[in-house]
Amino acid sequence: MAAHAVTPLTICCLRRGVPLNHSRRLLAVAAAAPESPAPTPAPSQLPLPPVPPRKGYFPKRGETVELTCEALAFKGKGVCKVAGSTFVLLCDGALPGERLIARVRRLRRGAFAEAAKLRTLEPHHDAIEAPCPLAADCGGCKTQSLAYAAQIRHKHHQVRDLLVNFGKFDPKRLESSEPDDILKPTVQCDEIFRYRNKMEFSFGTKRWVQKELKDKGEEVEVKQETNETDGYALGLHAPGFFDKVLHVQKCFLQSEPADKVLAVVQETWMDPAIGLTPYDVHKHVGFLKHLMIRTGRNISTGTPEVMVNFVTSCYKPDVLMPLVDKITKIPEVVSVINNVNSSVGNSSVGEQEYTLYGKPNITEMLRGLAFQISANSFFQTNTKQADVLYKLIEDSAGLKGDGSEIVLDLFCGTGTIGLTLARRAKHIYGYEVVPEAIEDARKNAKLNGINNATFVQGDLNKINESFGKEFPKPDIIISDPNRPGMHMKLIKWLLEVKAPRIVYVSCNPATCARDLDYLCHGVEEKDLRGFYELKSVIPVDMFPHTPHIECVCLLELR
């Protein structure tokens, strides 16, 4: 792909697994901020002198360059350029409007490059001070130093550009002064901190340490270049490294009771008298792999309930008991679980699960229903915003409420969406590939006294001619796929069954735009005709300070 053909949108698709033949159909996307010449910094301000741009510029690995960030790609990397060049460099931590010095780390297919930020020359637009001192290093809150209103603006632009350039929808119809415009304002999150009900931390033998370079007597912080140490750590993986862990004492995303748990574990687990060791991903020795903390609510009192899940390489409950005894002094802790994962892999899901204290699950309320959450259950990570999301899904579904309609809930997970619609529908049929999720869905239906819901385990990427024969023709289809979107087999089936309405819930606007294109405009190379009209797209910010955005899309049969 030629350098001039690369846009933030193209890069988004390349990095999210969208085929190159589709990304070539993208139109050029205007940068979020125009380039403007800037005064050359004094030599003493730079760790290394930047290489001046040249015509037909392609960077070299290890080269130090001065960049201007123009936009954000979908994963939150800054889309940067050297002045006078059209070649794109993706840089973590760079935000629109920022001028910076960066070092080229690697070239990607000759289409773009990745760079490591060395220092800021001029702050970005809408700059604020990040509350968390680790925000620039951990990667969990890539945009914490960007004002929240600006975060919303950039996410909205990304959704719009993907729908236009990849979904091939008319920009005049997407956003207009008419009440029937398709793209609605992005729904903001009321609580932009302490919103996560689940955090997973890793134990490690190599602590991520920020090193300092000295250039002409001046200390220069380098965020991506690090020294390896033998220090133990409990926290989040350093961006791009599976074996290095940034030591985290507190996290502004999780609940305050969860922070109490993390603090107690950090104070205790490295005590030599206890004899606990982190798992070494290279040598495959050690005991502690992960610490997972989940927060729910008691359905009777509304008070927080915390589950603590230790993932270990083997089952040694006596070794964990000193930690368990201290954790359970925290009033909100009602469950301590031990998942045993003896494989060399780093998964947090164990082959065996043991309850070390309290009950095996916690509960949470969503749209007036109670849900049981086990250690490995899928549940929306932002409970309060999930309530908002599900209300939008219910409104988009447009159920009559007379109990006459069949709802098909594809990729149903633990049944949360389908069950919130069940009281207004004749019957809910849910499909999900994960057996444990289906079991949880059935338990949740029973817990809430819902008898008109059937949940079936099956892989929707491998459906055959018999799919759909075990249930009546649906009036409404809810589809909530994971990031890769829907398989072509499922899209073909949807175009054949022709349900009156489809509500497509997406966590990846790139694959969402692709699938909406197929359903509305067809797939010429597969001789498929599109039968749907896109009526509305509502972006919903579920995860402030991250690049992620959900969309609720309504399609109606033409």
Q: Which blocks of ≥5 consecutive residues have pLDDT under 50?
A: 1-8, 19-47, 211-229
Provide the gyration radius in Å: 25 Å
Number of strands: 23
> Main sheet?
7 strands, mixed
Question: What number is the mean pLDDT?
Answer: 86
The CATH C-level class name of the largest domain:
Alpha Beta
Structural class of the secondary structure composition? alpha+beta
Helix content: 10-25%
Count of DSSP H/I helices: 12
* Overall tally of structural domains: 3
CATH architecture of the largest domain: 3-Layer(aba) Sandwich
The fraction of residues assigned to DSSP E strands is 25-35%
Question: Can you tell me the CATH topology of the largest domain?
Answer: Rossmann fold
Within CATH, the superfamily of the largest domain carries the name Vaccinia Virus protein VP39
Enumerate the strands of the largest sheet in spatial order, edge to edge or round the barrel. Answer: 10-9-6-11-12-13-14
Anisotropy-based shape: globular
Distance between the termini: 37 Å
What does it look like?
There is one protein chain. The chain is an alpha+beta fold and 558 residues long. It folds into three domains: 63-125, Beta Barrel (OB fold (Dihydrolipoamide Acetyltransferase, E2P)), CATH 2.40.50; 159-191 and 382-557, Vaccinia Virus protein VP39 (Rossmann fold, 3-Layer(aba) Sandwich), CATH 3.40.50.150; 198-208 and 230-370, Beta Barrel (OB fold (Dihydrolipoamide Acetyltransferase, E2P)), CATH 2.40.50. Helices cover 21% and strands 28% of the residues. It is built from twelve helices and 23 strands. The chain has helices at residues 8-15, 20-23, 135-138, 148-165, 171-174, 256-268, 317-327, 383-397, 416-421, 435-447, 488-497, 509-521; strands spanning 64-72, 78-81, 88-91, 99-108, 112-122, 198-204, 208-215, 218-228, 233-237, 245-247, 288-297, 304-312, 333-340, 352-358, 362-366, 369-373, 406-410, 427-432, 453-457, 476-479, 501-506, 532-540, 550-557. The strands form five sheets. It has a seven-stranded mixed β-sheet, with helices on one face. Strands 19-18-17-20-21-23-22 form a seven-stranded mixed β-sheet, sandwiched between helices. The protein has a five-stranded mixed beta barrel with strand order 1-2-3-5-4. β17 (406-410), α9 (416-421) and β18 (427-432) form a beta-alpha-beta unit.
